[in-house]
């Protein structure tokens, strides 16, 4: 086979730092070229959500800053607004339109990026279809990433986001992992807030407390060239979509443990980033699981059957160790196989501050992040040491788990508090209070109040 032809670049390539590897170096050079202001942001080195910024903190870089100086960065203050003249109808609660997850609000936000100019002025405009070339990079090479967030109408009448800064940080990490342009996360947050403020009052009226809109910031490579290379054009867009309230599943979620022919993510891959390529390949297995009566796949990794995620959500287990110690355990992030979920992070922080010392009628519990196998879970189930389990994520929120199937056996998960376990119930209650502005948590720092337009 003839070697692939490579066109020489006009400038010499950056010097490779062989101590960190190709991916880390590539991320560094991408940020330097497309959004050097990100490097000035102070982020704790222990924060996985700030992994991109941490990885490029070795600056000064050997990459040239000449290009960066001439490229415009994402700037929410340049937003151009065109309001719709054909407003859309808000679906009735309980209607098929509400449940379809297809109905979007009146407006959307777009921002274009090109390799020659950088970020163009963003626009708030009527919701409508995108125009893409059939040869667009995102349609062929999965150069696409997104975030999942919610806009809540609180019981106190206010509109809230939940820790949106973390979503914007994570989207920066995802874009850099797949060679899309970088941006300052605070500018993305400003755009999200603007769209929520514009459409929130109409689509989440104050007489609908306890409801939400789903927020989908997305970035795609729109470069029309079919060559397998870094895209030279990209589009950021933000949508608000109607979702029906998501109630508890009777008896809890049923999980089917993945088999030897399935692998969702692997060390050195991109399981930690919220990219479209993580989701499409899982749909075949997910469909088969549902046909068999299960709600989702419990993804395992390797011959040791290491537990990773439940569908697209993080997996938590409360059990007693063989020595009798009570633990809340979840997969760690060290190998970057598991998504650093915003809900996951919040569960862990709340558990360490409120549950570890004991809470009301709950005994103290140790919070553990480590690699553990399905064989350990199986043994704990056989010995009666499993207390409860749940999945966490933006879509499912906190979803109790009632059953796990592994290699021909079903393991029933206890639910001591009726529809969930006691610790699951306590964690869910804490988070709901913050998201919906109730239970004395209206002023919690995790609840980002959106000042809606009149």
Would you give an account of this structure?
- Its cofactor is pyridoxal 5'-phosphate.
- There is one protein chain.
- By secondary structure, the chain is of the alpha+beta class.
- The chain folds into three domains: 22-55, no CATH class; 71-242, D-amino Acid Aminotransferase, Chain A, domain 1 (2-Layer Sandwich); 253-436, D-amino Acid Aminotransferase, Chain A, domain 2 (Alpha-Beta Barrel).
- 25% of the residues lie in helices and 24% in strands.
- The strands form two sheets. Strands 1, 2, 3, 4, 5, 6, 7, 8, 9 and 19 form a ten-stranded mixed β-sheet that branches.
- A hairpin with a 3-residue loop joins strand 16 and strand 17 (397-406).
- The N and C termini lie far apart (65 Å).
- The model is unreliable at 1-14 and 42-68 (pLDDT under 50).
In short:
It is built from eleven helices and 19 strands. The chain is an alpha+beta fold and 454 residues long.
What is the total tally of β strands? 19
Alpha plus pi helix count: 11
The percent of residues in helical segments reads 10-25%
Please name the CATH topology of the largest domain: D-amino Acid Aminotransferase, Chain A, domain 2
